[in-house]
Amino acid sequence: MTPAIRKRLAQIGFLVLIQVIALFASVWRWGWWNAWAYLGLYLAFLIFNVFVLLPHHKELVEERSRVGEGAKIWDKVIGGISAFGGLFILILAGLDERFGWPGGIRIEIQIAAFVLLGLSYPLFTWAMVSNKFFSTIVRIQKERGHTVQMGGPYRFVRHPGYASLLVSYLMIPIAFGSLWAVIPAFVLVVNLFVRTVLEDRTLQNELEGYQEYAGGVRFRLIPGVW
């Protein structure tokens, strides 16, 4: 295992720890089934990714461990909003559960949201294994011979990883049964659309062949819509 892969695994472990703290420190009790369901689903997704990516996609894992040359400054800002916004969703949901704020979501709808959330995770993995340049930050990876990727879900939308994130942002507050957590989720949705537009513009301007690909695959996130 290379140092870059160990670094990436450490980053993911830290992310899980922060989410655990955000959830249980805000709700202030261990017996919250929504939190355990979310963490179990998320850990299952991470373990699945380890078994899928490490055997045949080590370079991708290494790429996702660092901020490489040519990273866009605006994307660092967008990434920061995503990170803090995601934690804010968990904290607000925990506080909502703890103090019983007005508004609520029926248990059947919460379960349905968990199902949709679980279905969005494989799409993210599919996007990663279909695109060996699936970085955590927007940049043209010239040192890796960056080319347009057109297989897998990229046949249907230009940013399938973001399509998966869109579903996650919409479903997580509902899965936690918190209407209040929808507020930061809405901010993240707007942030995601901005990132999609800026990344798509960057690729069209700087990545050879992407304009032709975009002409064939019309939609960025939602087939038939946008």
Explain what you see.
- By secondary structure, this protein is mainly α.
- The protein has a single domain, classed as Four Helix Bundle (Hemerythrin (Met), subunit A), CATH 1.20.120.
- The chain is built from 8 helices and no strands.
- Helix 1 runs parallel beside helix 4 (73-99) and helix 2 packs parallel to helix 5 (107-130).
- It is globular, with a radius of gyration of 18 Å.
- The N and C termini lie far apart (40 Å).
- The relative contact order is 0.14.
- The model has no long low-confidence stretch (mean pLDDT 96).
What percent of residues adopt helix (DSSP H or I)? 55-70%
- Structural class of the secondary elements? mainly alpha
* Anisotropy-based shape: globular
CATH architecture: Up-down Bundle
Low-confidence stretches: none
How many discrete structural domains?
1
Radius of gyration: 18 Å
Number of strands: 0
Number of helical segments? 8
* SSE pattern, N- to C-terminal: HHHHHHHH
The CATH topology is given as Four Helix Bundle (Hemerythrin (Met), subunit A)
Q: How would you sum up the major sheet?
A: none
* Overall average residue pLDDT: 96
Tell me the fraction of residues in β-strands, as a range: under 5%
Distance between the termini: 40 Å
Oligomeric form: single chain
| CATH domain class | Mainly Alpha
